[in-house]
Amino acid sequence: MIYQHYVNTAKYKERGNVLAEDQIVQMSKQLETFKSNLEEFASKHKQEIRKNSQFRVQFQEMCSTIGVDPLASGKGFWSEMLGVGDFYYELGVQIIEVCLALKHRNGGLITLDELHHRVLKGRGKYAQDVSQDDLMRAIKKLKVMGNGFGMIPVGGSYLVQSVPAELNMDHTVVLQLAEKKGYVTVSEIKDSLKWEKERACHVLDHLLKEGLAWLDSQAAEEAQYWLPALFAELTSRDVTPEEANQMTP
């Protein structure tokens, strides 16, 4: 009786392994077919993928479903056929140029919206269209290079960090708190986050030290810590280093 049960169990296990192997083979065939169709689709719509930012986003999403990254290699099939490697490399250079040009007044933090606006402005109206999704993909590639680039979620968008400053979760939460008004106070941090004064001051002092915040010690009620990357009046126009120094509290 026990022996028969053991034999039956072994047969079921063997049958299960065979079915699993068949499923893997079928899935592999389907994946290869999908990859082949994707390559054919990419070849047929190459120009539209390169020129239309929304179409490019949809194509990237199609690729991610089967684990294909068109940006993984500068010399791979996708990069050579679509030219996307060169596109994101050039976009990365433009992102770096914009961030360096504004570092004197924002300390190395810039909203994704402003970065998008300035990149488009620098490319000119006849250049290939660029979406915020394109910027985020290029920034992720820059981040891999280890040169300080990263993205911090703020509200429904992001702050782009272009300096190798050490920002932990406390700093990120304070940046998010300052997002609506462009500044934050110690009292607001204590009330909203239920922190002790020492913790709030430690975070704000670090932001000041890294040049990511400006201190207005003459504010009416208490000192205000302004985040120039979120300061609408500054981000709405270009300022020179001299103007920035004059406006610094």
Summarize the structure in words:
- The chain is mainly α.
- The chain has helices spanning 2-44, 46-51, 53-64, 77-82, 84-106, 112-123, 132-144, 169-177, 186-193, 197-209, 232-235, 241-247, and strands at 109-111, 150-154, 157-161, 183-184, 214-216, 224-226.
- The strands form 2 sheets. A 3-stranded antiparallel β-sheet has the order 1-3-2, sandwiched between helices.
- α9 crosses α10 (197-209).
- The longest helix is centred in the first third of the chain and has 43 residues, at 2-44.
- The chain starts with a helix and ends with a helix.
- Mean pLDDT is 76; it is low at 232-249.
Instruction: Determine the number of helices (DSSP H or I, runs of at least 4 residues).
Output: 12
Tell me the Rg in angstroms.
26 Å
Strand order of the largest sheet: 1-3-2
Secondary structure: helix percent: 55-70%
- Sketch the major β-sheet: 3 strands, antiparallel
Tell how many strands the DSSP assignment holds. 6
> What general form does the structure show?
flat
| Estimated share of beta-strand residues | 5-15%
Order of helices and strands: HHHHHEHHEEHEHHEEHH
Enumerate the spans where pLDDT stays under 50 for 5 or more consecutive residues.
Answer: 232-249
- State the secondary-structure class: mainly alpha
- Cα end-to-end separation: 89 Å
What multimeric state do the chains show?
Answer: single chain
User: What's the rounded overall pLDDT mean?
Assistant: 76
